[in-house]
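Data deposition worksheet. Section B asks for the primary sequence of the deposited chain exactly as it was used as input, without tags or linkers unless they were present during the calculation. Section C holds the resulting structure in C-alpha cell form. Section D is free text for depositor observations; keep each observation to a single sentence. Incomplete worksheets are returned to the depositor.
Section A, Depositor: J.P.
Section B:
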Amino acid sequence: MWETNLYARLGGKRRTYRIEADLQGRFVISLDGKVLKRGCDALAVRGLRRPGLEVRASSIRQAKVSIDYLLGMAEE
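Section C:
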C-alpha cells in the first residue's frame, strides 16, 4: 500500500515534489509526473526493520532529505 505526500523544497525554485512510499521502505520521488529518484530506507534493505508504518515514515523522511539536498537529482 503506497502513501502519497507532497513536499516543497525550502530553497531554490521551491517546486512541489510528490513522494510515494510503501510499508517495505521503498520510495519514489516525482515532479510533474516524471520520476526523479527511486530509493529505499537503508535499514529496511538490510533487514534490520520489519515492514510497517515506522519504516514508511522513515523512508518519507529520507526522501525529504534527498529533495532538500537534491541528492541524485537536478533542479531544472
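Section D:
Residues 2-69 form one domain.
The mean pLDDT is 89.
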